[in-house]
Amino acid sequence: MVILAVSYGVFTYISSKLEPENIVPVAAIPVPTPEEKKAIQDSLEALAIKESLMEMADTTIYTKDEDGYYDISWKQLSKVDFNEIFVDSMEMYIPYPVFHPDILFLDGKKIKVKGYVIPIEETEDESLLILSAFPFSNCFFCGNAGPETVMDIKLNNKKKHKYKQDKVITFKGELRLNDSDLYYLNYILENASED
Fold first, then answer.
1. pLDDT, tens digit, for every residue of 51-84?
2. What is the pTM of this model?
3. Where are the beta strands (DSSP E) in 39-127?
4. Residue 4 to residues 8, 10, 11, 12, 17: CA-CA distances in angstroms?
5. Domain for residue 140, yes or no?
6. Is the residue at 83 inside a domain?
7. Is the dihedral angle over the CA atoms 113, 119, 122, 128 positive or is it negative?
8. Cα–Cα distance between 193 and 167 in angstroms, integer?
9. Mind listing the pLDDT tens digit for each residue in 148-194?
């Protein structure tokens, strides 16, 4: 009974202090504008999507060699969809990649990939070439394959070296995914060298 009486007394005291005339005003907390709220929400959603995609990545499909490079196949790199978006400056639809979580996992990682060399004589830059899953006669540039079957190779050496078209070579370097720069392919192997 005593506990009940004490509890009632504490409740009555707290209630009296919560009456509107007893509440001390607090400085107004700034309220975000609708634009700020949307930007915050968009950022949180983007972060949640990225985190959930990374959780979905099946990293067991990749194996590392003794030098710490992931050995990647073109079949693994084919896990990409494309959204066709009209680009006014080019007056045409451009396929922008939407990479699978398994591919997103590889962004910035050291990889090895084997393919057919396609030199780019037009640029006169022998430190840049293209590696293809297919020989030139069947590759992306002849319209016989998709953009996921080719990769920019940015060589790390400044030494002049002529590469023969369709020579099969394995390159190693750091993979960078490109989903916006139209001057490069969707896959870029940076600081690359022959394996």
1. 565 555 565 678 888 999 999 999 999 999 998 8
2. 0.68
3. 70-72, 80-87, 92-99, 110-119
4. 6, 10, 10, 12, 20
5. yes
6. yes
7. positive
8. 15
9. 999 999 998 766 677 888 999 999 999 999 998 888 999 999 999 99
Say how many C-beta atoms besides its own lie within 10 A of residue 110's C-beta: 17
CB 75 within 8 A of CB 133: no
CA 107 to chain centre: 6
Range of the domain at 121: 58-194
In this structure, is residue 88 part of a structural domain?
yes
d(CA 165, CA 69): 25
Instruction: Provide the token pair at 79.
Output: 């896990």
- What distance in Å separates the CA atoms of residue 37 and residue 103, rounded to the nearest whole number? 32
Compute, in degrees rounded to 10, the torsion defined by CA atoms 101, 104, 109, 111: 70
Q: For residue 79, count CB atoms less than 10 angstroms from its CB and return exposed for 0-12, middle for 13-18, buried for 19 or more.
A: middle
